[in-house]
């Protein structure tokens, strides 16, 4: 597994400030993780930490935090935010399938459906092997991924809308999603056509997201020596059902 494989799938994160503004107020995963980490005194590692949405408030609560991400721009913004919050976090630009940190943790977390960036069986296995090598005995790994709801993935979904953005520019946006049942990968493409003074400029970005089925997830964890502690349908601990949008996975190193 090479860094290039992941870096070719990062177009959606080209503007870290915009990404941060969109998601910074989301707290449900943070509340869940804080509850699980309540009695821990050892360091905590967050993988795919992005702009520090979870890492920074946890550091503010006194946890020793290590944040890892492959996107340098996201990490730069996370470091700026951590400085403003006056917290010390060990940030590192790394490929999560090849972790090389100077510590082992009792808890490793990865949120924001980042698990879906591991597009192949090999990359999923490499991730879990990497996580396992950085966990203390009986350490836990908590992460989320979208639940593959077949009725939503069965057809190509294309939506077009026109709106005026905050700069009073007219924007026509086309979002297209197409699922490949063989690879279990959803290809999401966004095309924006921005009109300024009768001049139209087109922007395009895309992202590939792998879906993993519940029984497939159970087998994957078992094969890599993890015990499934719980699988919820949301960060609010709602029961997991076929209609759940998410799989919230809490597993423990055997």
Keywords summarizing the entry:
about 250 residues, alpha/beta, Rossmann fold, N-terminal domain of TfIIb, 2 domains, four-stranded antiparallel β-sheet
* Count of extended strands: 11
Strand order of the largest sheet: 3-2-1-4-5-11-10
CATH architecture of the largest domain: 3-Layer(aba) Sandwich
Please name the fourth-level CATH homologous superfamily of the largest domain.
Answer: Vaccinia Virus protein VP39
Instruction: Specify the CATH class of the largest domain.
Output: Alpha Beta
Shape category: globular
Look at the helices and sheets and give the structural class. Answer: alpha/beta
> Strand-and-helix sequence, N→C?
HHHEHEHEEHEHEEEEHEE
Report Rg.
Answer: 19 Å
Domains (count):
2
CATH fold assignment of the largest domain: Rossmann fold
Organism: Sporosarcina oncorhynchi
EC number: 2.1.-.-
Domain Methyltransferase: 44-139
Enzyme class: transferase
Q: What is the secondary structure topology, with strand pairs?
A:
Layout: H1 3-7, H2 16-23, H3 28-37, E1 44-47, H4 55-60, E2 65-69, H5 72-85, E3 90-93, E4 105-110, H6 121-133, E5 135-146, H7 150-153, E6 157-164, E7 170-180, E8 185-196, E9 199-210, H8 214-223, E10 226-232, E11 246-253
Parallel strand pairs: 1-2, 1-4, 2-3, 4-5
Antiparallel strand pairs: 5-11, 6-7, 7-8, 8-9, 10-11
Overview in brief:
It is built from eight helices and eleven strands. It is α/β, with parallel strands linked by helices and about 250 residues long. The radius of gyration is 19 Å and the shape is globular.
